[in-house]
Specification:
4 copies of one chain form a homotetramer. Helix content of chain A is 28%, strand content 25%. With 461 residues, chain A is α+β, with helices and mostly antiparallel strands. Chain A folds into 2 domains: 2-236, Aminohydrolase, N-terminal nucleophile (Ntn) domain (Glutamine Phosphoribosylpyrophosphate, subunit 1, domain 1, 4-Layer Sandwich); 256-311 and 318-441, 3-Layer(aba) Sandwich (Rossmann fold), CATH 3.40.50. In chain A, helix 4 (130-139) packs across helix 5 and helix 8 (257-271) crosses helix 9 (288-298). Chain A is elongated. Chains in contact: A-B, A-C, B-D, C-D. The interface between A and B is large, with 57 and 57 residues. One adenosine-5'-diphosphate sits between chains B (26, 244-248, 285-286, 288, 312) and A (307-308, 310). Chains A, B, C, D: The active site is at residue 2.
Chain lengths: 461, 461, 461, 461
């Protein structure tokens, strides 16, 4: 997955972008980049492996700072394609001048697009599908930046939120299905775009509205222009953004993530109660809101039974060997005084492979819990995502391979309850219609990509 | 402050120590170090500025790994003395062989000890008071390692938990007042010591007991020996460890930190209710338990209104200028949907200077809160700490200079309530007696150090 | 300038390439890169700013090692375009599979090539003219790799030595003028190409022959194929390679650089004697051979009067301010005992701006030299190079702006003698015909590039 | 070995020291350090593993810059003790204030000094014998800084040049034998000390005189005071400094190193002629002067047959395996055109283990040399050095174990000639008396140290 951020009209656009990316770090920790125009209008890009904070702008500060237009990107990606070549923004020079592009999402016809472009003589210097969009923009003969983007996006299928610099224009675009979120804000007159509203908050911008599915917005010295040049389709906002991916302090898809998770938790309590349980706790921090909702609805007290180490991710520490569950202990610890002798409800937002969950259950039992009732605030994940989330192949998804009872046994819980698909969709703001739930339901809004394992072309994120 | 960890009898003592330090990172982020015996019994030390995880053991791995005895240290310290010379463990060679020492605490007669040693010809290669203890051990003629430590500690005043390697013996010592916590554990027969029990958990060790105030424990091939060679004094365990410093998943001073904070929060609700408030929230994560206790006792619902960025501290990002409250925004964000139009109770564990609190209150109001009722789960901090916590001088402590009303106005809240001294002491496990509360009450168990500003000699942490 | 190296048929091609690049470091210190096929035939590229040795292959070792085909590049370039984007090899994927390319030289119709490609929809992700060649190869429909290269090079003007990986074929190409050197060697059956023969020596390869001007050589599993698909032109080998650029232990253009410099020095002695001088010394190390030749021919004794610091270039040390000549002192020191009271001949290979020379003369005088007779083993440089050497603009070239007497006065010598153009050309192996001497004579073999300041498109080097 | 530098009375003493150390880099590449007084007179030290240039002063610049007094140190040392703890200068605080010390040399009674100090209760935080001197200064009750140093040095045996900061006084001291060089200079009124005069040159200081064996010089605000408080002994200047260690542009022991090497080469030609040889060449760069002297005296032409890679030492490149002589090829390359078919004289300054020489001879033969006559401009090394040079144990010294014929066969030469002991001593300035030649002659001026393998305590230089 990725996070994107852009601003036009601020006297230090690159610095604002760096700050914005910092609050989108949870959307991608592998690489970070900023492309900005300098005071003379020349484009520059800086990219680094690792976190935004690790000195992204330090060296090139002088180069990037002072310009009024910048876009940025944080990227997570599968191991194979983990190189600087695949960091974004992509910056290219073409007939029509420079093009810089940051992409969140994944194209489903990337193979075809690439093939077509290669046949026309194009070369690719990364394995990202995003590069195909840059080529298409470069080849467009349309007159305005937004028209070039619109033309380029005809025939592009799948998920994308794009921030594009063409000349001195900033263009934002969201695919007709609207899989990924994109919000628009105002920072003392400067126009800001971001994957999530928490990035508006950190820079002190005011939330204005969402960029709509199928919308292309252009911002230049004249002001803001909007158009809907793409075929209208029913929206398929990713329900998993509400379930797990977005930050709880964000507003996406026109609703609050925290409120979504609270509702998911309450619905979970209704669908899968745990009568007789002494307490409810979350796997911090992504399921805090859901666990609170569960506790509230079930009338069971909410406890802080697991502590998440504040330094997670800054470390490559390997636990001492020979100890199956030590990996989980590096990230979490249980509070014995809370758990000892109790029958407990452990709430998590989702279960992917099940290995972390199994380790956590073992930890909770070792801390004295008498009974462990696992409750999951989403439906079972039974298929991969083709729209930008890096879920593993079906073979690794525990719920794609085992029955409820088998999963419960495998992870070592007394009882296990997942939220129903309907319950999940009914709980998120503006649901139940208009959401993608393919990885839960198998109901994919597109045919699978030609090259679903992404091994050849990778993903745009 | 500092965290200390030691293990004797494990086949990869240095690796275990690194893992243990990782969970004591909250006690000191400035530098980290490990001293260990290699397989041949030779001592080596590695020290780095920065976090445990940033490659502490990587380079010297070959050197340190494989030995059975290691101690480690994480250090926080005031800016002035922030150099590698002041990182611990101290490793020295003396008449009696090598001595390695890791210290948590602060000596109150450091100036005098140092003067005395310098008069006797000693040289100091750091500004840490801990170095004086090493000199004194080196000068002791006592026969056993523990007797040398005991002799060295006669006349040493103030706060210390020590882990010391002398030859192949690991000695643990805690001052007679017992200001700082020190626990003892068992890892498949290896003896482990740590500042907090969370470090036992991460390495998979079992909690055995606390090292007692005034106790000196020696561990060698023969086994474990305990003695109480120091003058007995009434204990003065630091209440602030329960209030803020220790991790909630730790057991210190014979009680659970989480339980302590829950009780503090409940007592706070009793002493300073907030009738009519719609919800309670914490300043994450240190006041989560207290806020939950408050909510429980007050019967007001608990909410997650502030989100703490997961990447805090990994960054040196500076917010864009000209914006008073932007510093707080880099670390926290408010959830508008939770706060809008509500009368809220904001619980924090303590207020030191008040600047962060003021920024948070402004953020909470900007997110729409109608009324803000600040509740603090400790008494007002009115004086500095001489026993190992880096609180600022009296001039910077807001509660030392302003009245309750003035503080409320300064931080911008509608009402402000602190827990009473008695309420605080009654809430912590094994309280109200036996605790230090000097920074809250002015009741210092020792005369102030000769050189209280620590500028000349620094602190042993 | 740049150095290039490639090998096909060796079991650890990337490691061999790294070693080869290490001996081509003098041709470019700004960035270094290697592109290699892995054991599965997949291409990967690693690039770094800085020297070859600074860990180029360390991280990605696992990725690159073990494959049989690799090419590499060391790059020096002007400040403006000093970014990783401009490091080589370029690696791209196209209709016909992957293309990796390393280029030494500079195209003179880069602007036109780029314009044409952009008009056809191409995008450029660097400012290097080399990228245009990759595009042209990608667009070629020819059947064999070498035919694609040959087709791509039609219409490409200026200087290039190229090493190109297409599929599993390694193609080497040299422009019809042959400005830059390219040699071919044999390493136990593996075919090796390198800018200079010193790179064959370091890897233990045997020199086979030069790649000829206008030649395209293809190496695949079938063996080696050669062709001359480009229009034949009179050769214009860069005389400055012999004068300064190549390493003295190299064989280039079919002759020894050391022998060339010795002959240049001898001819210089004949043309510009220094009767009455006590000794001859070189500005180490590039003019060592020439100075020795001068001494030999003139019958004056050769001395080591200047010492070049071995750690030059590893440092960014700035001399203390306020001292005009201190910059030179960081790199060189004079030997007073050699110079004191003597009339000396100082031999250097060339004078560009004259600032270093002025500093050296001052240093030599300060060490007691009575008379300083400067002798330069090349003709005066009066114009820029458009063929791959980073000489400055005419305005900065001292010999383009001052008369001989003025230069002598400016640099502070008693007498100054340059080698004549004819003397220079007659001294180099296979001369006087067939060499470029444009920067000395103004006789440019091509029209100047449209964009001679290279500001827009940079150079392929 | 080590290099030391100090300055008092310059407005940016630390920057001057860094520059001076840069030209003493050949004396030690393992670690570098500077201790300086800040503008307020407070001492600070910075130390780093690696080269001077790699950012020594960058971070702490603000701390160190601006003060008038600084000393510095470059250190080479045996692998075992390669840690930052052993980097110098040592900075300590004692009864009498701060003491900073930089040491070049090696004490021969380090074990005894250390034992005595440990018995008196001292602790050691490094394995350097230099630390013992700091302790002894700290314990001295003498009144002036120089008297404290003089008192401390009574009973200290072996080799030392010391630069010591005590309060605001800079003290320089050289042992009575004068094994290591130490020069004194003047930089616009500031007093400068350095191991070699090349460090005076780089900072622009004027050579004043050598610090004499047994002399203690003190510099403070009052001026310069000199004394000879140590027992007078016959001088034993290290002849190997002239042979190999010092830089040829330095003046040490009152004579020019270049002139010494020239004379050594000429004498070698007289003692071991090579009738019939076609040419003479050096193993660059340390034997350049000697080879030139040989050529001159023998009337054989001097050639540049070996080229030394300019980037040596900046690299950790490992040649591809399976190839015995590839290690030598990373550092040197032969010039075939010079060597082919010729009978050659190869001059080197010394042979230690013989492995590099064997590789070079093989390289020279592979380049076509018909006959190889090895000539060494020093006597055979048959024993270790106890006075500060890191020669290996006797077992590894080729000349301690093999006869002349055996060595010739082992390294693969046609003939081999070493300079005689007498010839060597007669050639160096101020010789033949007053020099140490123990490693050549076995005539050690002191008993061997108690702990000659230095394994326990390491060496002070
Ligand atoms: N401070 C927070 N409180 C609650 N949830 C959070 C917080 N920060 C991040 N999250 C949620 O947790 C998810 C994962 O965050 P991340 O920092 O990567 O932690 P983890 O290591 O648990 O995956 C985010 O996508 C977001 O939904
Ligand atoms: N995961 C956690 N949950 C709750 N409290 C925590 C957690 N981690 C640390 N703490 C508490 O917060 C205090 C400060 O932790 P730290 O990581 O330094 O965060 P902060 O930036 O808030 O100071 C710790 O001393 C501990 O009491
Ligand atoms: N060891 C050597 N001996 C003689 N000449 C050399 C040597 N190494 C490099 N050169 C020559 O000197 C030129 C410049 O080399 P470089 O290492 O960049 O040094 P400089 O700093 O003097 O420019 C090279 O292009 C080559 O011709
Ligand atoms: N530029 C130079 N010319 C001649 N001799 C030098 C030069 N620089 C250093 N030396 C001599 O060579 C010795 C070794 O120098 P160093 O740079 O360590 O090279 P090496 O790798 O050959 O050991 C020095 O002690 C000095 O005597
Ligand atoms: S498949 Fe799942 S993760 Fe992917 S977009 Fe649809 S709901 Fe979201
Ligand atoms: S003064 Fe305060 S912080 Fe210090 S030990 Fe006492 S209670 Fe703890
Ligand atoms: S212009 Fe000069 S430097 Fe350039 S190729 Fe011609 S001779 Fe060489
Ligand atoms: S033993 Fe050899 S190297 Fe050591 S000081 Fe004496 S002459 Fe020099
Ligand atoms: Mg989670
Ligand atoms: Mg807090
Ligand atoms: Mg030169
Ligand atoms: Mg040598």
């Amino acid at each position: 997955m990725c996070g994107i951020f852009g601003v036009r009209g601020h006297p230090d656009a690159a610095a604002v972008t760096q700050l914005g990316l910092y609050s989108l770090q949870h959307r991608g920790q592998e690489s970070a980049g900023i492309a900005a125009l300098d005071v003379a209008g020349q484009p520059h890009a800086v990219k680094r492996m690792g976190l935004v904070s690790e000195g992204l702008l330090e060296d090139e500060a002088e180069l990037l700072r002072g310009g009024a237009l910048a876009i940025g990107h944080t990227r997570y990606s599968t191991a194979g394609s983990s190189t600087l070549e695949n960091a974004q923004p992509v910056l290219a020079r073409s007939r029509g001048g420079h093009i810089a592009l940051a992409h969140n999402g994944n194209l489903t016809n990337a193979t075809e697009l690439r093939f077509e472009l290669e046949e026309a003589g194009a070369i690719f210097q990364s394995t990202m599908d995003s590069e195909a969009i840059v080529h298409r923009i470069a080849r467009s003969n349309a007159r305005t930046p937004e028209a070039r983007v619109a033309e380029a996006l005809q025939g592009v299928e799948g998920a994308y939120c794009l921030l594009i610099v063409i000349g001195e224009t900033l263009v934002a675009a969201r695919d007709p299905r609207g899989w990924r979120p994109l919000v628009m804000g105002d920072l003392n007159g400067a126009v800001v775009f971001a994957s999530e509203s928490c990035a508006l908050d950190i820079v002190g911008a005011r939330y204005v509205r969402d960029v709509e599915p199928g919308e292309v917005v252009a911002v230049d010295a004249e002001g803001v222009r909007s158009a809907f040049p793409l075929p209208r389709l029913e929206s398929r906002k990713c329900v998993f953004e509400h379930v797990y991916f977005a930050r709880p302090d964000s507003r996406i898809f026109g609703g609050s993530v925290d409120r979504a998770r609270r509702a998911l938790g309450r619905q979970l309590a209704r669908e899968c109660p745990a009568p007789g349980a002494d307490l409810v706790f979350s796997v911090p921090d992504s399921s805090n809101s859901a666990a609170l909702g569960y506790a509230e609805e079930a009338g069971i007290s909410y406890e802080l039974a697991l502590i998440r180490n504040h330094y997670v991710g800054r470390t490559f520490i390997q636990p001492s060997q020979g100890d199956r569950d030590s990996k989980v202990r590096v990230k979490y610890n249980a509070v014995r005084e809370v758990l000892e002798g109790r029958s407990v409800v452990m709430v998590d937002d989702s279960i992917v492979r099940g290995t972390t969950t199994r380790g956590l259950v073992a930890m909770v039992r070792a801390a004295g819990a008498r009974e462990v009732h696992m409750r999951v605030s989403s439906a079972p994940i039974t298929g991969p995502c083709y729209y930008g989330i890096d879920t593993p192949n079906r073979e690794e998804l525990i719920a794609a391979n085992l029955s409820l009872e088998e999963i419960a046994r495998e992870i070592g819980v007394d009882t296990l309850g997942y939220l129903s698909l309907d319950g999940m969709l009914a709980s998120v703001p503006t649901g139940p219609e208009g959401f993608c739930h393919a990885c839960f339901s198998g109901d994919y809004p597109t045919p699978p990509p030609t090259d679903p394992d992404k091994l050849r072309f990778g993903c745009g994120c």
